[in-house]
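Box 3.1 — From sequence to structure: Protein-disulfide isomerase
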Amino acid sequence: MTRKTTLALAAAFLAFSAPLTAAETATRTIAGVEAPFKTTTFTENADPMAAIDAALSAARQSGKHVLLVMGMNDCHDSAWFANLIASDRFAPVRERYHIVYADIGMPHRGIVRNPEIPKRFGFKIKGTPTVAILDADGEVLNRRAAPKWRNAASRSDDEIYNELMQ
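Predicted structure (token representation):
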């Protein structure tokens, strides 16, 4: 392959896989969701530790993994991610995992809720959502990738789907 062809292919790939711009993100929609950047999925007064323990117990029985989504309702990336996972297209993702939404606030912005959740799994939260894939014993399987979800609203639906279905 010639150098020009290689450079052209690399440029095309980067353009295709680049995160969405702020303007593109602001106008995104999710089929069947009226307000994709708003959610009530992260229940502020819930007991996320009990929900995690129940999901881990279910994972031991089913052989599935646990998808632990640490975020909050007022975070646009957390809301986008929760709404996307709830959409029809992501039904196979919901079938693949036991999903727990843990309201941890936005510690990186000084809003701290349920700090024992990220601590239990060894995370220092740098952005939300932080999405951990856990095995049935509670071991984090995607430690390096988990914090990278904090830009979920800027990622393509295909990228999110493909990463969660690996």
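Summary of the box: The chain has one domain: 3-164.
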